[in-house]
Amino acid sequence: MRVDVVTIFPDYLQPLTLSLVGKAVRDGLLDLHVHDLRTWTHDRHRSVDDTPVGGGAGMVMRPDVWGEALDDLVRPDTHILLPSPGGQVLDQALVAALAAEQHLLIACGRYEGIDARVAEHYGNTARLTEVSLGDYVVNGGEVAALVIVEAVGRLLPGVVGNPQSLVEESHVDGLLEYPVYTRPPVWRDLEVPGVLTSGHHAQIARWRRDQSLRRTAARRPDLLSRLDPNALDDADRHVLDTLDTSPPPAVEVPHS
Ligand code: 6GU
Q1: Which residues' Cβ are closer than 6 Å to ligand 1?
Q2: Which atom of ligand 1 is nearest to the CA of 109?
Q3: What are the pLDDT digits (tens) for 146-177?
Q4: Per-residue pLDDT tens for 54-66?
């Protein structure tokens, strides 16, 4: 897969040279290119923004500069991603769909965003998705680019050493992952659950499944309501039917 990231802060993407994604790039599994948007400016000040038409705070990124950049980078098979707090919230299903693409082009906006005609034009002439990290605000699309490349990159064939790690994790089957343990068997008076040292593989699998269901019900009941009912067997339904479904404790947010 090829991924192009366009940003006014190319250094922000430096973490992608590290760890699993960095190795995937070095191994030729991910063809990653980070570009400075200012490459596509022509004026002495290399200006990428201007004041908002109609007034208001902050600055808006210019469509002419973005147009030159995207015209140079878009191919027939490109899926353009525009990070935006108003976009489709990124989840594992969207990540998996993006991992099947040949070419992602992530256009990182800053300031108050990119002139809306850029999304409109490339939405009409290419495949384009506005993507949000969640319901909060960050200062620009670069952290979203990091998240997208990290989440998509690990799904590319050969990037994660043991492919089994990719199926036994949170959100893959719509549930949170079960708790995991290593040695020692007792740590600060806390014991590893006995079933895990029993050697009964079927019992271990059932215990882990129960834990996934209980955790998801306790922490993310919204995920349970979106589960495909066919994804649950009789034992799953019995676990869920015998659960206490009081809402999870949340971090307290001061009200204004
Ligand atoms: Cl993708 N960008 C910005 N600026 N803020 C966000 C976001 C993206 N996702 C959530 N908040």
Answers
A1: 83-85, 131-134, 136-138, 140-141, 144
A2: 4
A3: 999 999 999 999 999 888 888 888 888 899 99
A4: 999 999 999 999 9
